[in-house]
Amino acid sequence: MSKHYSGSCHCGAIKFSYDGDEITSGLRCTCSICSRKGALMSPEAIPLENLHVEANPEDLGLYQFDSGIAKHYFCRNCGIYTHNEMLRMPGHCRVNLGCIEDLDTSDFEVTVFDGKNLI
Question: The pTM is what?
Answer without folding.
Answer: 0.91
